[in-house]
From TrEMBL:
Any GO molecular function: hydrolase activity
Protein name (Swiss-Prot/TrEMBL): CRISPR-associated protein Cas4
Pfam family, one: PDDEXK_1
Species for this entry: Virgibacillus massiliensis
UniProt entry keywords in alphabetical sequence: ATP-binding, DNA damage, DNA repair, DNA-binding, Helicase, Hydrolase, Nucleotide-binding
Domain of life assignment: Bacteria
GO biological process: DNA repair
InterPro entries for the chain: PDDEXK-like_dom_sf, PDDEXK_AddAB-type
UniProt keyword Metal-binding present: no
Domain PD-(D/E)XK endonuclease-like, residue spans: 6-241
Highest classification ranks of the organism: Bacteria, Bacillati, Bacillota, Bacilli, Bacillales
Length: 245
């Protein structure tokens, strides 16, 4: 098996392997719901901001909003986002502006240097690999800091902080690229304006390796089955799932 998957594939597979198969593998429905769409559009806008900053240009808030709107209204045709009409579109747009404003204000006070933005990585697991991106690496007085931006309403509680697979993957990737463990991991929740610091050490990599190994085994055996839960109500492939026998 020579598969390359992303972090979002890994999460999707764990939530429901049948949904993963239908949406990610067979690509029968690739549209994003409003929350996922908003997260992707906001993150793309943040990348744009930091690419400019890395080039020495601190763009204005107006330019940032303009960038978001061009993604949100599909001018750039990046995402297929399912929304309930223009009203929801505008409400979500205002929600995004508020979050971008939080990020912007914080950055105005920051004294760190940008090291890398949206940095690609690929981690091999035998004949299998996971690829993803480190959203931001900056150099602070404490050293190299990996930064992630959260836009969701879910509480980033201690369990999630300690088991967040994205952070663990980024730690492994940083370790292999920079030949050292990152000095800090910062989670900027731009919805609540809270900053959380988490830790990762080599001992934390074990959990992820085990998860990936099990996913790999399940895929090679073709174990794709429905995992019914409250999330089914917003599942884009529930009609197909109902026919699963
Ligand atoms: S409806 Fe539920 S069980 Fe079926 S594929 Fe979607 S998430 Fe999985």
């Amino acid at each position: 098996m020579n598969a390359v998957i992303t972090l979002s594939d890994l999460y999707e597979f764990k939530r429901c392997s049948l949904r993963y198969k239908l949406t990610k593998k067979d690509k029968l429905n690739t549209s994003l719901n409003a929350a996922d769409g908003l997260r992707e559009a906001v993150n793309s806008t943040i990348n744009y901001f930091y690419y400019n900053l890395q080039d020495g240009k601190f763009i204005t808030m107006g330019e940032l909003k303009e960038k978001f709107s061009s993604i949100w209204y599909g001018e750039m045709d990046l995402y297929d986002i399912k929304l309930n009409g223009d009203r929801e579109k505008r409400t979500r747009e205002l929600e995004a502006f508020k979050m971008l404003q939080q990020m912007y204000r914080k950055e105005q006070r920051s004294e760190s240097d940008i090291v890398a933005v949206n940095l690609d990585f690929r981690i091999p697991f035998g004949d299998f690999a996971i690829q993803d991106k480190i959203p931001l690496i900056r150099k602070t007085l404490q050293g190299y800091e990996i930064v992630n931006f959260k836009t969701g309403k879910q509480k980033y509680d201690e369990f999630w902080q300690r088991t967040d697979m994205g952070i663990t993957l980024q730690a492994i990737a940083f370790d292999s690229m920079f030949k050292k463990i990152a000095d800090s991991f910062c989670i900027e929740n731009i919805r609540t304006s809270k900053t959380i610091y988490v830790e990762r050490a080599r001992k934390d990599y074990q959990r992820l390796y085990k998860s990936v190994k099990m996913m790999k085994t399940a895929m090679s055996q073709g174990w794709y089955y429905p995992n019914e839960s409250f999330m089914c109500s917003s599942c884009p492939v529930k009609d197909l799932c109902m026919e699963w026998r």
